[in-house]
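Technical note accompanying the year-one report. For the benefit of new consortium partners, we illustrate the data format agreed upon in the data management plan: each record pairs a sequence with a structure-token string. No post-processing was applied to the example shown here.
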Amino acid sequence: MKEENYRKLPTPAFLLDRAAFLRSARAFLTAMELNHGGEVRLGYSVKTNSHPLVIQAVKDIGMLAEVVSADEYRLVRSLGFSPSEIIYNGPLKDHDTFVEALNCGAVVNIETWREIDWLRDARPRGVGLRIAVNLSEISPKDAIRTNDQSRFGFIDEQGEVTEAILRIRAIPGMSVSGLHLHRNTDARRVSFYSALARYAVKIAARHNLTLDYLDIGGGYHFNGPGKPSFSDYFKAVNEALEGTEISKATLLAEPGNALSATIFQYITEVIDVKDSRVIVDGTRNDIDPLYHRMDYDRRILLDEPAEERPIVPVQTIGGCTCMERDVLFTLRDAPALRPGDRIVFRNAGAYTMALAPAFIRRPAQIIPIS
């Protein structure tokens, strides 16, 4: 978008580039199709950004909606998704949506013991089983603590997978037809997905499972300089699966960050300057609600040429809330900022609006720009 158009927008606001979402989704699906010998299905992680405009784009392109709670399930159903267009994960399912999803063709991955009990109320079919992944065991360089065992799913090494399979098979007509191995890592390395695929092969062989699908989960980088491509991930997965019993199983993936991060920008305006202390009408709560990031991909739009302003050694750019820690970034040896200048933050779509608190003011508005 041209610089003059940014100046016409109300602030603060998230700017949604729907066309960018569709491009990323198509690129992701193509990477899966070109690098896997069997069928592939792509689901969007609704928890990453559940704004209805995003969910509608998911439906328009024919993706599945991956949900992790009864509330998310009902949300996507209200937006037109049939159960057969849903992947239902997570421990926060409820009985009624769980049974409906099973009976109406959703991909359902079992997460808890109570879900196995609920199977008795549904029609006979195959279900998926979530495996609890221990990073310390399958990909030690991605572990952030000793014995980095996931809290979610069933732990194979403790006999939980064996017990879960026995309980499922004891219900007439029920079977395990899929494996779900979702686990996020900070580095999002390609090698982790290769290790994840090898672990899936090991689980399937150990328990003599004939799989209809393998759900490899999410957690991928979005496309960008210095980041792995979508093809890099699925070449590695395919190499790990090649020649195994599950190489032809349908491959599912559940990207969230990879598709939603780059489709939103966040625009805010400078409203006050005191010496080197700059205040904007936006807040770090909007673009970094967990206060984890150290820097942001940003663009500063000055009201006048930079050469007409003095250079300031240090400027601290803070948000509009009454929290001392609401500091967005520090500028060094840069032209002085003044009221009316604007700052545009790129890649602001993943886990931002979903986690931002309604603190002091309403959430920033959403403006479609394509």
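Partners are asked to follow this layout when depositing records. The chain has a mean pLDDT of 96.
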